[in-house]
Amino acid sequence: MTEKTSTRGRPRSFDRTAALEAATRVFWQKGFTAASMNDLCEAMGIGSPSLYAAFGSKEQLYIEAIRHYGSMGAPQLGQALESAPTARQGIEAFLRFSARSLACPDRPLGCMVVLSSVASEGIAGLSEMILEERKRSLKMVEARLRRGIQEGDLPRGTNIKELARFYVTVQQGMSIQARDGTPPKTLDAVATTAMRAWPTGRTA
């Protein structure tokens, strides 16, 4: 989609989707607070009047960037979790996919949602939105584990909420480790260790 705005009386066109992608990378790398308007305008290739005309405010741009980020990675992560034949394999695929993607050298390291949680603290509306995004991942894992009980992959007495929170906590910890420079191979080893906590026992 191409936006047309006016700067000093002259129309200016730019690709809104490409501009949003550029802004997402800036926020992902620097966080909301540290990303200046100059950083954003330079990366997006537009002036501040065009930015405000197209996105409303820095806060609104950030919200769109978070949603754009979710649309990039969440479907693949969800597919890794859901397409595996068993719940155990699904959780393992969820962690191993995270190990690869969070430490991918072609883009900012770590998960934008996890890394944004501290940076957006105290900013009206943003903290709540970030929390909802994190809850979405937890609910997705809970649903896969619940299905695992129904399909006989997990013991019926398994505490789904506790197990889901454990694996999501591991995955979110991987994000911090990735940002610190931990390589994918090491994060993959974390996934291997985490899978040793998988419940065993009667499934019927």
TrEMBL record:
Q: Which Gene3D superfamilies match?
A: Homeodomain-like, Tetracycline Repressor, domain 2
This protein's UniProt keywords = DNA-binding, Transcription, Transcription regulation
Domain HTH tetR-type: from-to ranges: 13-73
Return the annotated DNA-binding positions.
36-55
Matches recorded under Pfam families: TetR_N (PF00440)
Origin superkingdom: Bacteria
Provide the GO MF annotations for this entry: DNA binding
Q: What species is given as this protein's source?
A: Luteolibacter luteus
Identification of the protein by name: TetR/AcrR family transcriptional regulator
